[in-house]
Design goal:
The complex is a heterodimer of chains A (517) and B (424). Chain A has 517 residues and is an alpha/beta fold. Chain A is 36% helix and 26% strand. In chain A, α1 packs parallel to α5 and α15 packs across α16. The longest helix of chain A is centred in the middle third of the chain and has 16 residues. In chain B, α8 packs antiparallel against α13. The chains are: A alpha/beta (517), B mainly alpha (424).
């Protein structure tokens, strides 16, 4: 019990001594390339300060400098009026600066308690971990922060949103006075993101300074006190969130005005049904992830698939493609022909292409070139006697680069070194090279900046105009309004409802996705 | 920010000749390591009574090729396995099993455990391999213009393969009464290895087990199997060509035109075949894709399971082939012939720049890795350095080579320097 109260005391201490961080003229260059110039910024305890900017604007570099991952080339950092230099992240931690990376850094096979207390385990006799105390401390801490998590669950078994809470709890126990969160909601559904933002607001009220990086405009306005925009390594400006509008911020970010508008469609969807699904039911380890799902997709139509995380969006797309094996029942007809896809190869043969939600995890070979990635699905089909000519390969990659306007030095550019938006374009290029008639898009704009998002929306519209049918799954509701002709909303593996373009709105979609709650 | 901007930028930035040379040097540093080693060998080599440099003599250099051939062939198979981010610890045991079966087939008459295992194994493997090959050629011939031709019937390919497999088995069975000839051994022993490798692959794919565990079990199991087949624990089957085995078996240990050792030729041939396969065919792309990101490969419609099994089967087959060459050179087959071979092979692959994480590497790198070990032990032997010191040096070379390969050597020494300075 004493441990708990001392933790609580530490926490109180953190509240009492609110941090003030002053960055003066921070710059960073690698050899001759300057990636950040003259950033001057104040951050104080109790505020939520959002950093915005497109990919490559310098957000990550700035955050790395603040958290001691990289040193700055020019400029000074002052904390509470005292000038500091960070040699490594531990120095920054000692000052109460904690960063939560975009990719979670939890250990999946440890319990929640063990993860929360990682690196600060209570000891018995100076050597052995006091497991009971560890558990109690973690439990008390979680309760204090208001997180309802079972400390004995393995992190592996938690949903992404819950894992994020564990990460936050760990940061807070490290006595964080300045918490940096790099796109914490990019993997969360709307509801989970709402919970997370509640937590973040709470933290700020307790006096913690939060530096928040996000691409989601609605969220930025919901949560921020102040917003700082970076562009191409320059600080464009810092404003109170209350004094600005989304359009202004976008203009600051891209240097011109961009509004997310419904994509203009030249050719309306025809009435030919290319994909017809009836009573599709699929299970994973005995649990039904899809139940009697039926839908029709017309030629040249963009059909949205909404729903919360775990509602069955991904499962639906993967089942149609054949990526989930044969554990499904119901009828699937593609171009009027009944099929039962059980392998991805069959999916490709059926004219389908699946762009997965996790381009780094299962979409790309990160240390291979654009050319090698683009031709991957073509290799089993378009090779002759096991040989696929280098010439054809490069030609395919050139086409993808030109068509999708991938910013790269050439077909040999290693995919892992591209920005998120360009990586996503390579994934799209790879699948368009198979000349699919039906595109299955699973969160195609996750983690990419607004400019690239816009390009991808436009592209989807163009493809539909060319007669390609698209199933578009997303967790960001405004996206449906931008690109979809029609949508269905899933809830708990069921189709909760169908919305025409006119019926679609943030409210109707939200209502349907929580129908069975 | 259009494409053309970026391209012209990169063109402008195209470096001076010096820089280009430097980057070329960086890419080929592995070969330079080999060159340095050869120069070192030539400088330290003792001279023969006629005053010639022994190390650089044709006889010595071709002998190095012969010495590395067994490890080299095994290392080629290991390279493929490591391409797919796997590991095969069983190659040594499978090689030893190959030596035992090879030696017994050559020297024992009638239906021994060796022939009872190898004849059916040959039949099954030939049937599957030939059927697959014919089917592959069929499907490729038809897919000239159509993007999605109907798959050809499997019946003709299976019929032809069945005939060939049965004829081969009959031919082998005829030889069982007497003793196996060279061709019979060269066909049937690798098939035994392929069977063992296929078991590895099938367990990994369908049992969803770690390659390390499966091949560790196979390493132990194949050693036991070799002993059971040999009949007793310490069995050694000597092969005396001309007295207890056919004279022609000597071909496998002879020097072609008095210069080129035949085991070395086998190594070079295997190297060439798999260099071409991995460098220019989709098979190579599949392996690297599977090793780089198996799930991405699967979703691209690549048959990850089949390619994984084939890879382990190849590793097993090459190991058994190496076993035949071992018998030819050492005139014996024994169950513990392959002790530690898997580690030598892995070391050669890693020195050759193939990443143990999979997805990155090259067969030619493995060739250089094998040669580096071959030259090193030759140089040390010529200078009369005892074998235990050789092991120490070998260990150091592995670490040094990998540090170099990963471009971490400067980093490493810098870290050591600052640590030493900081703790003064």
């Amino acid at each position: 019990m004493t441990q708990v109260s001392s933790l609580a005391q530490q926490h109180m201490l953190a509240q009492n001594s609110r941090i003030t961080m002053r960055l003066t003229d921070i710059g960073k260059s690698f050899s001759a390339v300057s990636v950040l110039r003259g950033v001057t910024l104040d951050i104080t305890g109790g505020e939520i300060h959002t950093l915005m900017g497109e990919n490559g604007a310098g957000k990550s570099t700035l955050v790395k400098i603040i958290s001691g991952v990289q040193g700055q080339s020019t400029g000074t950092i002052e904390i509470d009026g005292e000038q500091v230099t960070f040699q490594n992240p531990a120095d920054a931690n000692a000052r109460g600066i904690v960063i939560m990376h975009q990719e979670l850094s939890l250990i999946p096979d440890m319990t929640v308690a063990q993860n929360v207390m990682l690196g600060q385990e209570p000891l018995r006799g100076g050597m052995m971990i006091n497991a009971a105390k560890l558990r109690e401390t973690a439990k008390a801490a979680l309760k204090k922060f208001g997180f309802s998590l079972d400390v004995d669950t393995l992190v592996r078994d938690l949903r992404v949103g819950e894992q994020q809470l564990v990460e936050i709890a760990r940061a807070l126990l490290m006595d964080a006075r300045l918490l940096i969160m790099d796109e914490p909601t990019s993997a969360l559904s709307q509801t989970e993101a709402d919970i997370l933002m509640e937590v973040v607001r709470d933290l700020a009220q307790q006096g913690v300074a939060v530096v928040y990086i996000s691409h989601r405009m609605d969220e930025v306005f919901e949560i921020s006190d102040r917003v700082t925009v970076l562009r191409d390594g320059d600080l464009i400006g810092t404003t109170l969130a209350a004094d600005t509008t989304p359009a202004d911020l976008v203009q600051m970010m891209v240097g011109r005005s961009v509004e997310i508008q419904p994509v203009e469609r030249a050719v309306p969807a025809s009435d030919d049904i290319v994909l017809s699904v009836r009573d599709l039911t699929a299970q994973v380890a005995g649990r039904k992830v899809l139940q009697n799902v039926s839908l029709d997709l017309k030629k040249g139509e963009v059909l949205g698939i909404g729903g919360l995380l775990g509602a069955g969006r991904t499962e639906l797309l993967e089942t149609l493609f054949g990526a989930r094996g044969g554990d499904h029942t119901g009828q699937i007809e593609i171009h009027g022909k009944a099929v039962k896809p059980t392998t991805p190869a069959q999916g490709v043969d059926n004219g389908l292409a699946l762009i997965t939600e996790d381009r780094k995890g299962n979409g790309l070979l990160l240390d291979k070139s654009i050319a090698e990635n683009v031709v991957l699905p073509l290799l089993p089909r378009k090779s002759r006697f096991g040989v696929f000519s280098q010439f054809k390969r490069n030609a395919q990659a050139e086409t993808a680069i030109d068509k999708l306007r991938v910013a790269a030095t050439g077909v040999d550019h290693v995919v892992g070194r591209l920005s998120g938006g360009n990586q996503q374009k390579v994934v799209l290029g790879k699948w368009l090279a198979t000349q699919p008639s039906i595109l299955l898009l699973d969160e195609p704009t996750r983690g990419i900046d607004i400019g690239a998002k816009d390009e991808i929306y436009d592209l989807i519209g163009q493809l539909a105009d060319q007669g390609i049918s698209v199933l578009f799954a997303s967790s960001e509701i405004p996206e449906f309004l931008a690109v979809c002709d029609r949508m269905i909303v899933l809830c708990d593996g069921h189709v909760a409802g169908e919305l025409s373009r006119d019926e679609m709105s943030v409210e109707t979609i939200k209502d349907l996705s929580m129908q069975f709650d | 920010m259009s494409m053309t901007d970026l391209r012209s930028h990169s063109d402008n930035a195209s470096p001076s000749v010096g820089r280009w040379l430097l980057s070329l040097l960086g890419k080929t540093k592995l070969y330079w390591g080999l060159v340095v080693l050869v120069i070192f060998g030539a400088l330290t080599s003792p001279l023969s009574s006629k005053g010639n440099n022994i190390f650089l003599s044709i006889g010595n250099l071709t002998d190095i090729l012969r010495q590395v051939s067994v490890t080299g062939i095994v290392a080629v198979g290991m390279t493929l396995v490591i391409f797919i981010a796997g590991i095969d610890l069983s190659v040594g045991s499978i090689m030893a099993l190959g030596t035992v079966i090879c030696a017994m087939l050559l020297t024992q008459q009638g239906w021994t455990a060796a022939s009872m295992f190898s004849v059916p194994a040959t039949g099954v493997i030939l049937f599957v391999a030939i059927a697959a090959l014919i089917f592959f050629v069929q499907s490729q011939m038809k897919s000239s213009s159509e993007s999605k031709p109907p798959a050809p019937s499997r019946v003709p390919s299976m019929a032809i393969a069945a005939v060939i497999a049965l004829v081969t088995m009959w031919w082998l069975a005829l030889q069982v009464d007497d003793k196996f000839g060279v061709m019979a051994v060269l066909i049937s022993v690798p098939c035994v290895g392929i069977v063992m490798g296929t078991v590895n692959g099938a367990l990994i794919v369908y049992g969803r087990l770690q390659p390390f565990i499966v091949t560790l079990a196979m390493m132990v199991g194949a050693l036991g199997l070799a002993r059971v087949i040999a009949g007793q624990d310490t069995a050694v089957y000597p092969v005396y060509t001309g007295s207890n085995a056919v004279q022609e078996f000597d071909i496998l240990r002879s020097l072609l035109w008095g210069v080129v050792p035949v085991p070395g030729l086998f190594f070079l041939a295997v190297l060439l075949i798999f260099y071409l396969l991995t460098r220019f065919t989709t098979f190579g792309s599949y392996l690297l894709a599977i090793g780089g990101n198996a799930e991405a490969a699967r979703l691209a419609g690549i048959n990850v399971k089949r390619n994984t099994i084939v890879t382990y089967a190849i590793a097993g087959g090459l190991s058994a082939l190496a076993g035949i060459l071992y018998v030819a050179q050492f005139r014996q087959g024994k169950p513990d012939a392959g002790l530690g071979l898997e580690l030598d092979a892995i070391a050669a692959v890693v020195i050759g720049g193939t990443s143990l994480m999979g997805g990155r590497g090259a067969i030619l790198g493995t060739f250089v890795g094998v040669l580096i070990f071959g030259f090193l032990s030759n140089i040390l032997q010529l200078n009369n350095i005892d074998s235990n010191t050789q092991l120490i040096l070998k260990g150091m070379i592995i670490v040094l080579a990998v540090l170099l390969q990963e471009g971490r050597i400067e980093e490493f020494f810098f870290a050591v320097k600052t640590k030493l300075r900081g703790e003064k």
